[in-house]
Amino acid sequence: NITDQIIDTIENGIITSVSIIANGTDWKRATDFVKSKKIKSFVHLNLSEGESTVEDGSISKIITDSNKMLNNNFLGLELRWLFSGSKKREIIENALYSELVSQISRIYPIENGNISVDGHEHIHMSPLVFKTLMKIHRKYKIKQMRLSNDILLLKGSYFFRRYFYKNIIKYLVLKFLIIFYRRILNDENIYYDDYCFGIIHS
Fold first, then answer.
1. Per-residue DSSP letters for 62-119?
2. How far apart are the first and last CA of the chain?
3. Residue 133 and residue 147: Cα distance in Å, rounded?
């Protein structure tokens, strides 16, 4: 499976850091292996699929379906918060906080700080999720965050791919958010990478 392939690349010295999906089916084995090899790891925060990691299902029910499965996307999460009243907004924010802290705690002893995070489908770049992560940082200390700052490399063939135009919109939205996030991360002394790759072609 995917975990076996990643372990093989680590064993062969091909990669030196990994992201671990905290609610993935093989998260425990992956975490134990990475710790044993002292490989740098990020928590790959996931709010769009898989089971919630919060033990008390009532806490996170507003961001899960009836089977406790996470079912949020970047735009949908923002719109749900935006069109909610103040009480429901608070419930959503508390549910997000609980879920993110729970996922981070699976990979790191969260009280020790030194946390590195990125996000599945760039969900950590959502304004609501980013705001929640800053709240977590002020209590537990996030050391590094992936800033989804893709480099735009184009070929003529890309314009004939249907997903290209949707991804261009994603690219522009993220570029706009980065203008504000970079300043916040600098103020909070959170390290971020200059660039990433994959938004246009995923």
1. GGB-TTSBB---HHHHHHHHHTS-HHHHHHHHHHHHHHHHHHHHHHS-GGG--EEEEE
2. 21
3. 13
C-beta neighbour count of 73 within 10 angstroms: 14
**pLDDT tens digit string along 125-146?**
999 999 999 999 999 999 999 9
Nearest-angstrom CA–CA distance, 196 and 4: 24
36-62 pLDDT, tens per residue? 888 889 999 999 999 999 987 666 678
Q: If 0-12 CB within 10 Å is exposed, 13-18 middle and 19+ buried, where does residue 3 land?
A: middle
- The token duo for 70 is 């996470």
> Which single residue is written with the structure tokens 């977590």?
136
User: Quick one: tokens of 60?
Assistant: 């996170």
With bands split at pLDDT 50, 70 and 90, how would you rate the model's confidence at 199?
Answer: confident
